[in-house]
Write a structure and sequence with these properties.
Blueprint: H1 7-21, E1 28-29, H2 33-40, H3 44-56, E2 60-63, E3 66-69, H4 81-85, H5 88-101, E4 110-111, H6 113-120, H7 124-135, E5 140-142, E6 148-150, H8 155-176, H9 184-201, H10 207-223, H11 228-247, H12 252-270, H13 274-300
Antiparallel strand pairs: 1-3, 2-3, 4-6, 5-6
Length: about 300
């Protein structure tokens, strides 16, 4: 994978490859840039980059203004989910969140895409994609023709996040009850439960590992919803949650408490006790809301 490619570009490439597979026998001309823009809902700049990628893959050849498809795309031409999820934009997004979490970028601070691109040694296209994704969580905002700004958090915002989490994760648990016994999600839940059991046996669990297990636990639960819109929306919410996770000072008693809460929910799901699992999740999310409020009070004093 070309590291400078953004997630949007990789996804759009896959969409274009699917489209080209349906075209007549090759060689043949490919759709115009305007048609690609309309068909894939992309910008002219992205459309141009897509053609360049196809040329690199040997699928398309440019002949002046004419673009000729030399062969139909095959499975190896498509970008895998792993490649998409580990795109340059994702890596940059994590670096930006780290800057926010470490308070290198503080509430009310303003910055430009160019300033951030220079600091992270990438281009403004990648920066913009990462910032737009982070902005969905409410951590940052941008007014027209102005710099980006780090948002001041409020108790109301945290309460709204808690309500959304209960809605999404409650729905996901409700959907689990409808899954076939052979659905892959059961194996994921079982593996996750075993990982929690292993961590609880360790003398010390690092804060970094704890943050990762928090992310994995909740995203796996939401994945069970089998609803792409809920999953994408929850990813935005979790960006804000992850910000607060970096602020929490995890001691071992707190880590043990959270791990046991997770394991309790997982165990009830695996035992098909869905009502009990929902009640346990509500208690866990209420605990998480209080933790976020406590963190916010500390940050207000910084």
């Amino acid at each position: 994978m070309r590291k400078e490619y953004s997630k949007l570009l990789l996804k759009s490439t896959n969409e274009l490859l699917k489209y080209l597979q349906m075209l007549p026998d090759v060689p043949c001309g490919i759709p115009s840039t305007n048609l690609l823009i309309h068909q894939l809902n992309i910008s002219s700049t992205t459309a141009t980059k897509l053609i360049d990628i196809l040329c690199e893959k040997g699928i398309v050849r440019k002949d002046g203004k004419t673009k000729i498809m030399l062969r139909k795309p095959v499975a190896a031409d498509f970008y895998s989910l792993e490649e998409i999820e580990n795109s340059k934009a994702d890596l940059i997004e994590k670096q930006i969140i780290k800057k926010l979490s470490s308070y290198e970028l503080k509430p009310s601070d303003r910055f430009s895409e160019l300033e951030l691109a220079k600091a992270l040694q990438t281009n403004t296209v990648i920066i913009r994609e990462a910032l737009l994704k982070i902005a969905q969580s409410g951590i940052i905002k941008k007014h027209p023709r102005q710099k980006w700004e780090v948002v001041e958090f409020s108790g109301q915002m945290i309460s709204e996040i808690a309500a959304v989490r209960k809605l999404y994760e409650g729905y996901a648990i409700d959907r689990v009850r409808l899954l076939d016994a052979k659905d892959p999600i059961w194996k994921k839940l079982e593996d996750l439960a075993n990982r929690h059991k292993s961590l609880l046996k360790e003398k010390e669990v690092s804060a970094i590992e704890m943050r990762e297990i928090e992310r994995l636990f909740h995203t796996t639960i939401v994945q069970a919803s089998n609803n792409r819109f809920i999953q994408e929306s929850y990813n935005s919410v979790f960006t804000l949650i992850f910000f607060h996770l970096w602020q929490i000072e995890y001691d071992q008693p707190k880590i043990e408490k959270v791990l046991k809460q997770h394991l309790d929910i997982l165990s009830k799901l695996l035992e098909r006790k869905f009502k009990d699992a929902t009640e346990a999740m509500v208690m866990h999310l209420d605990h998480a809301r209080l933790s976020m409020i406590n963190v916010n009070h500390v940050l207000d004093k910084v």
